[in-house]
Design a protein that fits this description.
heterodimer; A: mainly beta; seven-stranded mixed beta sheet; B: mainly beta; six-stranded mixed beta sheet; five-stranded antiparallel beta sheet; about 0% helix; globular
């Protein structure tokens, strides 16, 4: 099992550009989520999904979109990048809502 | 507003010391509390607690939850330099997961 994979590992964007962070898991987990982590802060939930076709907003959803067309994949789209979105992004999955989460290796995003 | 507060924010100890990390929370519809360890990369799971008063143990680490007083503690005995990390507490509230800011533990030889 590869677990949770994320691509890319690093990305630099200019303000206003858009991009998609990829996340995939091969554990057949229903619950998937995206977090951002800023220095000195814990993880903040951006969006989550409880199953294919179902997504919802977390604590900090503005500027991000998600979709869940398959159980395995949960991409995060930045619509128009802003310097405030400079952060480390983690994707996670779990068998059930509220259970132990498995995290991907993270994507370090810099917006200039 | 739901919140999770961890204390202390940072802690420096020497090998062999025992440490206690704290996590207090205010959330509606509590479902579970989880502890994670984060070194330089992704968080790794330590414990999940759902019931009050039941201690979870794994080697030198243990954790307990008090649902009446709304807090949890993580104990590490006989600390080692490999325990140096940020320890994160997360509380699950229906579909939402709230993390605390973490406690940065540094263990000196």
């Amino acid at each position: 099992n590869a677990g949770v994979t994320q691509t890319p590992k690093f990305q630099v964007l200019k303000t206003g550009q858009s991009m998609t962070l990829q996340c995939a898991q091969d554990m057949n987990h229903e619950y998937m989520s995206w977090y951002r982590q800023d220095p000195g802060m814990g993880l903040r939930l951006i969006h989550y999904s409880v199953g294919a076709g179902i997504t919802d907003q977390g604590e900090v959803p503005n500027g991000y979109n998600v979709s869940r067309s398959t159980t395995e994949d949960f991409p995060l789209r930045l619509l128009s990048a802003a310097p405030s979105q400079t952060s480390v992004y983690f994707c996670a999955s779990s068998y059930s809502t509220g259970g132990r989460q498995y995290f991907g290796p993270g994507t370090r995003l810099t917006v200039t | 507003e739901d919140k999770v507060v961890q204390s202390p924010l940072s802690l420096v100890v020497h090998e062999g010391d025992t440490v206690t990390l704290n996590c207090s929370y205010e959330v509606t519809n509590f479902r579970s509390l989880l502890w994670y360890k984060q070194e330089k990369k992704a968080p790794t799971f330590l414990f999940m607690l759902t019931s009050s008063g039941i201690e979870k143990k794994s080697g030198r680490l243990s954790s307990i939850l008090d649902k009446k007083e709304l807090f949890s503690i993580l104990n590490i005995t006989a600390t080692q330099t490999g325990d140096s990390a940020v320890y994160l507490c997360a509380v699950h509230n229906n579909n939402d997961m709230r993390f605390g800011a973490g406690t940065r533990l540094t263990v000196k030889p």
